[in-house]
């Protein structure tokens, strides 16, 4: 669950930015002839509702209805007692606290005579919500509107890019000083505490304790002794903006120079401004063999989702204003992992 | 489901596998499809012992105990391969992968749970997939607990007590609410606790409930409420306590005594065979006796306790209209948390194991209004 600092303020997320996002979406809905769009939210899939309203649930679930015209409505199973808190972190739209969010949204649809409803990621909508939204009288038809949402979402505004860079700054600071003498759990605990003290909303620390043994980044319950070379993956959210950073560390001093060269190459690549350029720069100048890569971005309800990877067999030329590029490589025949944020601020 | 290489399988998972297999046999179900995410990880965890963090997942549990785990996050799939002996598939298209998996099994009866959270893309093809609602098959198993499961709930309860001491020590005037949580999370991670359900309230009469931290600064005289719910091997235990920054006032102590009395009454009502409703009524009668009846309604409080296990807010919900019987070995928390008009929101509650004649309390923390 989300238990880090959660708060909205005009300086970080101006109301005007949210209004512009909603307007772009509403223009899209009108051009498609849809009466509205529904996005589902819970802690695993908070990103679309957060993009449109600034709100991320700390628990439970909800549905956001953005009608083709007018104010959005957020219906949530979070109890009425927390509506004051929701209002404090969600500056747009009205709130309905109800055990049956979809039924409440359907009533709004029927009242507004909305028959064609777009749904983000329709196939992934929880079955009970879908059934209650559609009803059984044929009055409301559900249509997948993932493409429409993505076309709006893919154009990150300056506000979002800046929040992502602030989140990345927190992640960078948390990983700057690692006590190589710590055990893995303590290492994970200290990194998480630093991130939370810096105002992170959510923090996931994964450690690959021995790059020679596994490719997995483990949580603290499965962490034991660290191997000669290990990697830390820090994923965190700051006011709805998610980033990841991965660093590889070695205990032996003689490995430090090679790792520093790889880090420098990664940083140069990440500074390229866009994921395809970053990957090209890395492939051209990496002091080792790149074995795999992937690009993650926020394009729907997931905070970060894989939008391209080396196993796809297709060239990647996606235009993503902000993304996370992760790379696996071999340096001196030993695995290496690195990841970070790619994206420059742009005018909205 | 078996150990392979370095993968160790907990005793709790072994008994869950056995129980699930028996339940499937009794219901004549060939496969059980369990859905999970970081919010509702319980069903997936029950059948696969994998604690999902990012994305969504589906586990197809076969009657022979074998499991295929579909995860839509590549890094989570990598972790599952390391942590379990299951067949693990990174399924970018979760619905498509699940459909193929079910259809590949041929002419079989597959149940799914929790059905309400299952992706619509699967449920709308339920007839073709011969998919039915398997909620009844697993829900009682999630509520009932075996001794092997109690081991983890007990450990979680002990860590909740320790975590509360960290919280109490951190609660000093001038500190921000999220800084307290950072300290607790640091402690929990260092103890191998991966998850913690936690909300907080800071202030006085204006505070109507708990929520995530908002940056409030603690000051002398504030009531600080929290529920800590650490998770060990997937199992949660919860403690609810209230502290005062500085010394409690007479009014705060007097108000809190109603909650102490209500918790005592609720706990006294617990034993195998009574219903959740009986426990809620015992708690609420105390409030009514003090003229505080309106504060036990949904306007001010959500539940008067709840089951706890692989989900921190499991059935049965302790409410006067919930007739689910408590059974021996069930783990629940009783907490008469609500608003008190004189001082603000107050919480007090402990995780217990239901026994044939009463209960066993898992927390050792005194049930008093604490000060920090």
In short:
Chain A has 348 residues and is of the alpha+beta class.
Largest interface: A-B, 66 and 65 residues
Q: Could you tell me the strand content of chain B as a percent range? A: 15-25%
Output the helix-strand order of chain B: HEHEEHEHEHHEHHHEEEEHHEEEEEEEE
- How much helical structure, as a percent, in the residues of chain A? 25-40%
Strand order of the largest sheet of chain A: 4-3-2-1-5-6
The count of DSSP E runs of length 2 or more, i.e. the number of strands of chain A, is 13
The unreliable regions of chain A are none
Commentary on this structure:
The complex is a heterodimer of chains A (348) and B (372). Chain A is elongated, with a radius of gyration of 22 Å. Chain A has helices spanning 15-32, 47-53, 83-89, 101-111, 127-134, 146-153, 158-176, 184-197, 256-270, 275-285; strands at 36-42, 61-67, 73-76, 94-97, 116-119, 141-144, 202-208, 229-238, 241-250, 289-297, 305-309, 323-331, 334-342. The mean pLDDT of chain A is 93. In chain A, strand 5, helix 5 and strand 6 form a beta-alpha-beta unit. Chain A has a six-stranded mixed β-sheet, with helices on both faces. Chain A has a four-stranded antiparallel β-sheet with strand order 11-10-12-13. The two termini of chain A are 32 Å apart. With 348 residues, chain A is of the alpha+beta class. Chain B has 372 residues and is α+β, with helices and mostly antiparallel strands. Chain B has helices spanning 11-27, 42-48, 74-83, 94-104, 120-123, 126-129, 135-143, 147-170, 177-190, 250-269, 276-289, and strands at 31-37, 56-62, 67-71, 87-90, 110-113, 131-133, 196-203, 223-232, 235-236, 239-244, 305-307, 314-317, 331-334, 338-340, 344-346, 349-354, 359-361, 370-371. In chain B, the strands form three sheets. In chain B, strands 7, 8, 9, 10, 11, 12, 13, 16, 17 and 18 form a ten-stranded mixed β-sheet that branches. Chain B has a six-stranded mixed β-sheet with strand order 4-3-2-1-5-6, with helices on both faces. In chain B, strands 14-15 form a two-stranded antiparallel ribbon. The N and C termini of chain B lie far apart (47 Å). In chain B, 58% of the residues are buried. Chains A and B meet through helix 3, helix 5, helix 8, strand 7 and strand 11 of A and helix 3, helix 5, helix 9 and strand 7 of B.
């Amino acid at each position: 669950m989300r238990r880090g600092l959660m708060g909205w303020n005009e300086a970080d997320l101006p109301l005007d930015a949210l209004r512009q996002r909603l307007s772009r979406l509403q223009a899209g809905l009108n051009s498609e002839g849809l009466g509205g769009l529904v996005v589902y939210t819970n802690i695993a899939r908070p990103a679309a509702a957060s993009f449109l309203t600034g709100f991320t649930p700390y628990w439970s679930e909800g549905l956001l209805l953005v009608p083709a015209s007018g104010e959005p409505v957020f219906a949530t199973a979070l109890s009425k007692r927390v509506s004051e808190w929701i209002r404090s972190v969600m500056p747009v739209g009205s709130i309905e606290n109800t055990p049956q969010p979809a039924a409440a949204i359907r009533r709004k649809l029927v009242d507004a005579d909305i028959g064609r409803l777009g749904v983000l990621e329709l196939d992934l909508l929880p079955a009970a919500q879908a059934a209650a939204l559609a009803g059984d009288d044929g009055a409301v038809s559900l249509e997948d509107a993932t493409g429409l949402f993505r076309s709006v979402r893919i154009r990150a505004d300056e506000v979002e890019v800046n929040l992502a860079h602030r989140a990345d700054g927190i992640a960078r600071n948390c990983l700057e000083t690692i006590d190589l003498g710590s055990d893995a759990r303590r290492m994970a605990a200290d990194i998480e505490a630093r991130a939370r003290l810096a105002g992170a909303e959510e923090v996931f620390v994964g450690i690959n304790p021995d790059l020679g043994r596994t490719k997995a980044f483990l949580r603290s319950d499965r962490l034991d002794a660290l191997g000669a070379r290990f990697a830390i993956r820090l994923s965190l959210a700051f006011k709805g903006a998610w980033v990841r950073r991965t660093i590889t560390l070695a205990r032996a001093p003689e490995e430090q120079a090679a790792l520093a060269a790889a880090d420098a190459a990664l940083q140069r690549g990440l500074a390229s401004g866009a994921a395809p350029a970053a990957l090209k720069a890395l492939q051209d100048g990496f002091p080792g063999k790149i074995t795999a890569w992937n690009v993650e971005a926020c394009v729907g309800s997931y905070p970060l989702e894989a939008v391209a990877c080396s196993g796809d067999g297709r060239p990647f030329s996606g235009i993503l204003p902000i993304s996370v590029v992760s790379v696996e490589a071999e340096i001196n025949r030993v695995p290496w992992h690195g990841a970070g944020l790619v994206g420059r601020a742009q005018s909205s | 489901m078996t150990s392979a290489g370095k993968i160790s399988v907990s005793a709790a998972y072994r008994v869950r596998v056995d129980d699930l297999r028996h339940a499937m046999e009794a219901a004549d179900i060939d496969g059980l499809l369990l859905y999970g995410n970081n919010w509702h990880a319980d069903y997936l965890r029950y059948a696969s012992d994998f604690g999902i963090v990012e994305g969504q997942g589906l586990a197809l549990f076969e009657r022979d105990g074998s499991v295929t785990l579909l995860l839509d996050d590549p890094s989570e799939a990598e972790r599952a391969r390391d942590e379990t002996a299951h067949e693990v598939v990174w399924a970018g298209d979760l619905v498509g992968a699940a459909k193929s998996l079910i259809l590949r099994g041929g002419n079989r009866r597959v149940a799914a749970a929790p059905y309400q959270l299952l992706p619509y893309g699967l449920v709308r093809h339920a007839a073709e997939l011969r998919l039915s609602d398997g909620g009844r098959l697993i829900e009682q198993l999630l509520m009932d607990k075996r001794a092997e499961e109690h081991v983890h709930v007990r450990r979680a309860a002990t860590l909740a007590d320790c975590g509360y001491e960290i919280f109490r020590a951190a609660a000093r005037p001038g500190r921000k609410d999220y800084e307290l949580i950072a300290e607790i999370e640091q402690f929990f991670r260092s103890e191998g606790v991966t998850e913690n359900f936690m909300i907080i309230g800071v202030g006085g009469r204006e505070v109507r409930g708990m929520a995530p931290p908002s940056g409030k600064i603690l000051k002398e005289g504030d009531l600080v409420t929290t529920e800590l719910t650490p998770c060990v091997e997937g199992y949660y235990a919860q403690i609810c306590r209230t502290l005062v920054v500085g010394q409690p006032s007479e009014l705060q102590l007097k108000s809190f005594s109603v909650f102490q009395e209500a918790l005592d009454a609720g706990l006294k009502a617990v034993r195998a065979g009574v219903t959740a409703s009986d426990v809620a009524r015992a708690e609420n009668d105390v409030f009514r006796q003090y003229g505080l009846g309106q504060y036990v309604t949904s306007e001010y409080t959500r539940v008067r306790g709840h089951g706890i296990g692989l989900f921190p807010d499991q059935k049965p919900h302790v409410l006067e209209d919930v007739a689910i019987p408590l059974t021996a070995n069930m783990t629940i928390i009783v907490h008469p948390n609500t608003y008190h008009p004189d001082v603000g929101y107050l919480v007090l509650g402990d995780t217990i194991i239901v026994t044939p004649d009463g209960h066993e309390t898992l927390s050792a923390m005194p049930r008093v209004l604490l000060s920090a």
